[in-house]
Input
Amino acid sequence: MKFGKVVMKYRIPILIIAVILMVPSVFGMTSTRINYDMLNYLPEDMDTVVGQNILLDDYGKGAFSFVILEDMPLKDVSTLKSKIEQVEHVDTVLWYDSIADISVPMELLPDKIYKAFNSEDSTMMAIFFDTSTSSDDTMDTIREIRSITGEQCFVSGMSALVTDLKDLSEKEEPIYVAIAVILACAAMMLFMDSWLIPFIFLASIGMSILLNMGTNYFLGEISYITKALSAVLQLAVTMDYSIFLWHSYNEQRERYADHTEAMATAINETLVSVIGSSLTTVAGFAALCFMSFTLGRDLGIVMAKGVLFGVVGCITTLPALIILLDGPLHKTKHKTLLHSMDKLAGRVTKVFPVFLAVFVILIAPAYYGYSKTNDDVYYDMGESLPEDMKYVIANSKLSDDFDIASTHMLLVDANLSARSVKSMIKSMEHVEGVKYVLGMESVVGSRVPEEILPESITNALKSDKWKLYLVNSEYKVASDEVNDQIVALNTILKQYDQSGMLIGEAPLMKDMIETTDTDFKVVNIVSIVAIFIIIALVQKSISLPVILVAVIELAIFINLGLPYYFNQSLPFIAPICISTIQLGATVDYAILMTTRYKAERRGGNDKRSSVTTALAASIPSVIVSALGLFAATFGVALYSDIDIVSSICMLMARGAIISMFCVIFILPATFMLLDGVICATSAGFKPDEKKTELNNA
Output
């Protein structure tokens, strides 16, 4: 009782401190930088990442974009190029007038260069920036270039992608939270016994969310996915704790005349159950930190922190708010839609062999679909954006007008002989899908001495240590074809220059594919083992962790297997996140029922009555929790135009419902079948002899 009494004694100071903490939390949240470039989360020691750093450090060039101009006179293009060169953080702009005066006919250019930068009614210029791909400065520069160039111009490249992604995310995020709050509130108003309590829950959880977002400041930056999802997921997965406290408080109100004493008891009871439940959720998020692709660590740390803040809020600010508004809360009580579940529970346990058969029948197709889903994920972030976005339109123009789907960059030793370079370029241009390789030799090869080339050309393509070449490809980023092409190009490169590097969006994306494929397996194993150990320790059982994890894993297999059967492609990060989040967040439903089942068996009741009572008592809480998680994520899934956010939220919403059905129908059936094994391999199931005699009397 001591902790609960302390909270009740100091409830007003607790609320005052909570409100005061919101001020620095707001400043911390608004000051936390958001990273929109997924490729930044690759391990720093990868060749592609090292190469990107060399490009920035040695050349002073980070980001790279093509700008396509349609139906524009050459004189106007030249004027526009001069304006773009004046924009802050634009390092170099390469176009025809970088080589020759526009009075000289373009047709005199080498055929390869002419075709590279011109189509029927379009011309193209290459822009190098002196800042990194996803820096705030680069994004500001992209916006300024767009404002200068107008509607006849289209800016492509990774920097344009992250700029559009940032603008769309910032527009959508407040709406995400509003949708999640409204739908979660509506679900709780319908399925709980008070019209006012959902608003109290949301006030307490909102404080925890704000505190979590504010403390992200100390992480330096977080990803846009973390920012978009963390508030919604924290609301969804920590709502259970508030429901536990409210139910416990209502029970204690019937035992204690003093409502503060009732709440003190409820706090202590909730503390024990919430800590046990939150450990599995924290373990699920913490498992993401084992990814070498550090986006997982980013999301994992923020969400694990959010769950801990949710627990603290549940046992401090929420009780204080409930006591403060105790009168209005009880005046606004109503009958819940969820009445006695005794009949349903009795029917489930009566025909439990049917649900065991369903369990066995579902395993094979669910696992097969689950194993195939990861084969059909996509990595190109451009695919997650609406077709009317500026970046998507620009990339379509680049592909349609110039037959370029991706651009790689080669960094080659500056001392490599011209003969070797030309031989290397010739070999590379024979690789399937390579349009051409452009560099100093493309111009020098046309009998123009290197010494008389404009400084803009030599500075752009040569440094003291390296020479830079652009390799334009017909193949899309993250496609199997471009990945095979990259392997072939790297093989040729290493034959001529062991220190040479192939960099750019497509090579980085290839590394990301290989990294996350391994991460998926590692995170799965870590989350299952961690949650298995937690359940084993909390339940003091060898068999129960196997049963509980097996039931929830079936729900995960079904959830992640459905996209295969529906012929849907998911963003690569979705299966990794869902496999751990769904396990950590919904295994609580199974733990809740198991705890009651254990108490009933300990009380001397037989197998059937214990399972039936546990099921009947747990169904309302499981349904409310699952519907709360569903409501908080489903609306966001329908609304969001960012497919990564939409897909993860849809999988979370669907996963909550599937887990709910598995826990209500399949878990009790496994208890009925394996009751003897559970009692023999678990502590605390041995019946109290006096209670058994009393029950039999």
Remarks:
- The chain has a mean pLDDT of 86.
- The chain has 26 helices and twelve strands.
